[in-house]
Design goal:
Blueprint (H helix, E strand, L loop, with lengths): L3 E6 L4 H12 L3 E7 L11 H4 L9 E2 L2 H7 L2 E4 L3 H14 L2 E4 L6 H10 L4 E4 L5 H16 L6 E8 L9 H14 L3 H4 E2 L14 E7 L5 E9 L2 E9 L3 H14 L5 E3 L1 H4 L6
Parallel strand pairs: 1-2, 1-4, 2-3, 4-5, 5-6, 6-12, 7-9, 8-9
Antiparallel strand pairs: 7-10, 10-11
Helix pairs in contact: 1-9, 3-4, 4-5, 6-7
Length: 272
């Protein structure tokens, strides 16, 4: 089988450059195209040079349609509106779409799910292999430790430039905890506390979002009971972990039928 041709969207950004490097280094994958927004100073430059690899012969363009038509898949860590648009293009081309974008609304997710009728989409709030293993452990811990005894808090910290809170990873972990408790996260989550809030309501899942410096991503799920705490954590030290997971997901998805998948499917952890 020939190498999987992958389109990198948002190619000039930090994640885009990481993705270019990771694809270039991964056996069985190649950079097929690099996409940037209209007016980007990166347009016309070589994707390899932008990523510090030297010339790859892949010029950055702002026209995704022909690129998608010639490729096997697309790697996407952009914005909700852009990811919805790219999902539509991927559906038209009937290719793989890996979405690591966070901050999607319920409407965005619905449109992405609709595109998955024709595209093979893997979407996750975090592409890290370790984080997705952590989600499984959180679900198991939440199921094992009764809500009457153990409260759940999700704490995350990211760099000062992150625009959404809680992070997509925090929400992924919160969903895992809610699944373990067989409750709806939307109904049980507490996103902010300020002033005289009263006692903590049993069974709720709290979130705390910290922002500062250059922190790539730290996440902890705290299960606090009488006289003891269980803390499950993941600390990200390099953005390449997300790129590694995304490329792994693309290669996994290449021969899968259209549908909406998660990183748990990629890792064989779904339902565990």
């Amino acid at each position: 089988m020939s190498d999987m041709g992958l389109v990198i969207v948002g190619a000039a950004g930090r994640m885009g450059q990481n993705l270019i490097r990771m694809v270039h280094e991964t056996p069985g994958a190649r950079v097929a195209a690099a996409i940037e927004r209209q007016g980007s100073p990166a347009l016309g430059k070589d994707a390899g040079e932008i990523a510090g690899l030297g010339v790859l012969g892949v010029p950055v363009t702002d026209d995704p349609l022909p690129a998608f038509a010639r490729a096997d898949g697309v790697l996407d860590f952009t914005s909700p509106a852009a990811s919805v648009e790219f999902a539509g293009y991927a559906a038209q081309a009937r290719i793989v779409h890996i979405i690591g974008t966070t901050g999607c609304s319920a409407e965005d997710d619905g449109r992405i799910a609709a595109a998955a009728r024709h595209a093979t989409i893997v979407k996750s709030g975090n592409m890290s292999l370790g984080v997705n293993l952590l989600a499984v452990l959180v679900r198991q811990a939440a199921a094992a430790l009764d809500a009457g005894d153990f409260d759940i808090e999700v704490v995350e910290m990211h760099h000062r430039h992150k625009v959404d809170a809680p992070s997509g990873t925090a929400l992924l972990l919160g969903e895992a905890a809610a699944e373990g408790r067989d409750v709806s996260l939307a109904e049980e989550s507490v996103r902010a506390r300020d002033g005289h809030t009263g006692a903590r309501k049993a069974g709720t899942i709290g979130f705390a979002a910290l922002r500062g410096g250059s922190v790539i991503g730290d996440h902890s799920v705290i299960l606090a009971g009488p006289g003891e705490r269980v803390v499950l954590s993941h600390l990200a030290g390099d953005r390449s972990i997300y790129a590694h997971g995304a490329v792994k997901a693309a290669l996994w998805a290449r021969d899968r039928k259209p549908g909406l998948y998660s990183m748990l499917d990629v890792l064989g952890l779904a339902g565990r």
